[in-house]
TrEMBL record:
Keywords: Membrane, Transmembrane, Transmembrane helix. Residues 17-147, 162-290 form the EamA domain. The chain crosses the membrane at residues 17-38, 44-65, 77-98, 104-123, 135-155, 161-180, 192-211, 223-243, 250-269, 275-293. The keyword Transmembrane applies. InterPro entries: EamA_dom, EmrE-like. This is DMT family transporter. Pfam families: EamA.
Length: 304
């Protein structure tokens, strides 16, 4: 009787986690579209700063709804600082890449983040990579070369090459943020993670923003508020989903972002994907999914 009662509850929980993850990916993809549109008007430093500043009203609303001390607890400030710097690096890299590349190509590079996170955790935290990491790394790197090769061959070191480099830098920053978040999550409050990251990223971006500042219209200010709202909501939904089901059940859903990127590239910029971009992205996603599958198997083996 208990098992029968637990079954539907578990199924509903999984379905809600899947729905939350899909909605989060849609929100974050839409956020990147708005940032790409804003990128034609402002420098990257100003974009990172404005996104950080615009997040503060949303975080304030969060505090009004959830003022409990546990949500805003900070016990490891040094790692919070590092995480904020990594968020700034990710923002600089990706926002610059969005100005030079179609969304789908930038996303293809971003999809290597799980592999980069494994390598960073190995180098910085001593976490031993699981079996097959080398294969996944090689396949992911091959996928990046497939995506980037046409642009590099046609236009040399201008344009696309700088975009791919920016996306790679953003991916390393994002992967580092994932590793530090995993380190902080057991002891820190969820609200504190959001607040500290945005404050530090804004401070890092401030001098760069002041060097190349452009006036903001009311519409652009609204755009940054929309971006930050989508970011806070999307990351919150991902955190909610991951707190209710095992990571391997919902993490692969992040790759639905590529479908959103293809759709937005066509609808907004009338850009059709190259066959090499699709093939390279497929190879990268396959490598990361296989890596996630191996990690899930090893986690089950450790649990016995």
């Amino acid at each position: 009787m208990t098992a029968a009662a637990d079954g539907p509850t578990g199924t509903v929980r999984d379905q809600r986690a899947v729905a939350a993850m899909l909605l989060a990916v849609a929100m974050l993809s839409s956020m990147d579209v708005v940032m790409k549109l804003l990128g034609g008007s402002h420098g990257v430093g100003q974009m990172v700063l404005m996104k950080s500043l615009a997040s503060l009203p949303w975080i304030a609303v969060w505090w009004l709804i959830r003022p409990q001390a546990a949500v805003w607890r900070v016990r490891r400030p040094a790692i919070h600082l590092l995480r904020g710097v990594l968020l700034a690096i990710a923002g600089f890299g990706f926002f610059h890449a969005f100005t030079l590349l179609p969304l789908a190509e930038a996303y293809a590079i971003l999809f290597t983040a799980p592999i980069a996170a494994v390598l960073l955790a190995w180098g910085l935290m001593g976490e031993r990579p699981g079996r097959g990491t080398g294969i996944a790394l090689a396949a992911g790197f091959a996928g990046v070369l497939v995506v980037a090769a046409p642009g590099l061959m046609v236009q040399g070191l201008d344009g696309p090459a700088l975009g791919y480099l920016s996306a790679a830098i953003g991916t390393i920053g994002y992967a580092g943020m994932v590793v530090t978040t995993r380190t902080l999550a057991p002891s820190e409050g969820l609200g504190a993670l959001s607040l500290s990251a945005n404050l530090v990223a804004g401070l890092v971006a401030l001098p760069f923003a002041l060097i190349d500042w452009s006036p903001l219209s009311a519409l652009q200010t609204g755009g940054y508020l929309l971006v930050s709202g989508l970011s806070v909501a999307g990351i919150g939904l991902i955190s909610w989903a991951l707190s209710r089901v095992e990571v391997h059940r919902v993490a692969p859903l992040e790759y639905t972002a590529f479908a959103w990127a293809l759709a937005y590239d066509w609808l907004v910029w009338r850009v059709t994907p190259q066959a090499t971009s699709l093939a390279g992205a497929a190879l990268i996603v396959a490598a990361c999914l296989w890596l996630e599958h191996r990690r899930a198997i090893e986690a089950r083996r450790r649990r016995g």
